[in-house]
Amino acid sequence: MSFSQLALPEPILRAVLELGYEHPSPIQEAAIPKLLAGEDLLGQAQTGTGKTAAFALPLLARLDPAQNDPQILVLAPTRELAIQVAEAFQAYARYMPAFHVLPLYGGQNYTTQLKALKRGSQVIVGTPGRIMDHLDRGTLVLDRLRAIVLDEADEMLRMGFIDDVQTIMDATPPGRQVAMFSATMPNQIRAIAQKHLKNASEVKIESKTSTVERIQQRYVMLDNNQKLDALTRILEGEEYDASIIFVRTKSATEEIAEKLGARGYAVACLNGDMNQAHREQTIRRLKADQLDVIVATDVAARGLDVERISLVINYDIPYDSEAYVHRIGRTGRAGREGKAILFVSPRERRLLRTIEHATRQPIEKMSLPTGQVIEQRRIEAFRAQLAQTIEAKNLSFFMDLVNDWREKLETTDIDMAAALLYLAQKDQPLNVASQFPEIREPHSRDRDDRAGGRDKFARGDRPERSGDRAERGDRPPRPRRELKGDYTNYRIEVGKEHGVRAGDIVGAIANEANIDSQFIGNIKLFDHFSTVELPANIPAEVMQHLKKVYVRKQKLNITVDTGSPAAGSAPRRERSEAGPGPRPGAAPRAPRKPRD
Fold first, then answer.
1. Residues 49 and 197 in one domain
2. Does 429 lie in the same domain as 318?
3. Closest to 46 in 3D by CA, of 297, 361, 460, 457
């Protein structure tokens, strides 16, 4: 069966085909016709089977475009999954006029959510705790709701949300359509289904395994500012034919593709802003060996099947296991071997464990390729290229030149060959082992690991912070870092109004100037600019390069800071720490007062 046989409206079908979907998965083929017909549905399927499209596509087809009130409510156990589902709805509805979807989850500012609710959204995707908050406040009204979806119902049970789910379902109109999806069917989930689903169809999809067994899966623990360096090492140190790199945002596809292109890679990006013709052209170039690396978002790479792809790199860890399965499924297809590498920060350990649990396969920890490995691979590649040239090319003209030069320069064959080799490798030097220092694994800051239990905020319902940071009790201020050696205060033209964070600045400077983050000093954020302390002996060519670096779509234009900020531009925060640890000689951090 193809998607065109599922009786989906033309705008939705067009979006699906542009996203690369060709044939519905078993859960989609079974669920879409029933939900299109307005039936209630109880679906049992493992992660990675395509559940999101199974309920999103038919429910979008039943929307009333003239109604701006919430018509569909999707409950998800975590904020990460809520965001993922909302993004999927947006992608499927790209050709539906005046469509709005709103994710609601804990940790997000209430003011932002209230403004969005007032503007109106046809689809609400949220975590139970935050949905309950808005129902209690009267800011979310479900009187005109047409359908409610419980996604990963067993996970909501496991995380203690089941009472909230019951309350929310009781608050919805009695005639609404209900779809419930769960990997397992414990008694409490079955009881909810019996209470709220009317004459429901039941669909159960058996899944032998969620991932392809031929894919070698590994992960590396990194801080965000180490990712680009790690990526280039893997692309040089791993054996692969073609690679696809997954990121979360469209802007990241362009940024990383640009940086890899500057490093000499044949690279292009795939994202939702590309039209179908451009997408097809990029895929043709990949198949024709004209590209070796693709940087893509999840939705843009759905349905991508290129035999050359033998390495998948998850630059940004996906928010849910289903997305991870779809990503690594771009390799190891039709019985071929494949490799998948996942970048994980210490705070993302929980997501790593969730993926391992859902896929029922361990993900092995790996070490990044060392400078010696990269150097050896460059030498071997150059030697192979040299052997191919000797065998396949007519070199008589060049032999005559070499003989003539050797006599005129009064040198030996070995000296001549060494000099020519030096000139030939200047763009990609062979002697590089010392240029790749060890990337240290960051210290774990995962609350889950420190406390020995589940992070109580991991479920997506972090309570709202009250008041400004400066007004929260008598917490002592962080001490200013004492810098050793000569440091200069620099001004950069990106500030609070651009949404910049201190970590963005550290990551950009550490990556582009090859400065270890521990040598980046205090950072102050102002409205229109920021200041940063850097070692005074940075080479002039590095400073010229930093002027052209972009952070939050703003060029740094770094200059020596010569004056004080204008009145009224007090810094939001002072970054008194940068990198994995304090510089030697730093003042000890004052103890924090524990939160209630």
1. yes
2. no
3. 361
Closest CA to 45 of 154, 149, 147: 154
Residue 316 DSSP label: S
Owner of token pair 């019996």: 194
Q: Which helix (H) or strand (E) holds 72?
A: strand 72-75
The token pair that represents 229 in the structure block: 């360096």
Q: How many domains does the chain have?
A: 4
Assign 412 to helix, strand or coil: coil
Distance CA 500, CA 16 (A): 35
The chain-wide mean pLDDT, for the chain, equals 80
pLDDT at 135 over 60: yes
Same-domain pairing of 427 and 485: no
Which residues on adjacent β-strands are paired with residue 577?
A: none
Residues 314, 223 within the same domain: yes
| CA separation, residue 354 to residues 24, 87, 324, 458 (Å) | 25, 20, 11, 12
In a shared domain, residues 239 and 282? yes
Any domain includes 555: yes
Q: What is the pLDDT of residue 410?
A: 87
Q: Distance (Å, rounded) from C-alpha 157 to C-alpha 225?
A: 36
H/E segment holding residue 164 = helix 162-170
CATH number assigned to the domain comprising residue 531: 3.30.70.330
309 DSSP assignment: E
- State mean pLDDT over 410-419: 88
Residue 163 in this model has a pLDDT that exceeds 80? yes
What is the distance between the alpha carbons of residues 433 and 23, in angstroms, rounded to a whole number? Answer: 48
- Is this prediction's pTM over 0.70? no
Q: Do the Cβ atoms of 459 and 77 come closer than 8 Å?
A: yes
Pair of tokens at residue 5: 């046989």
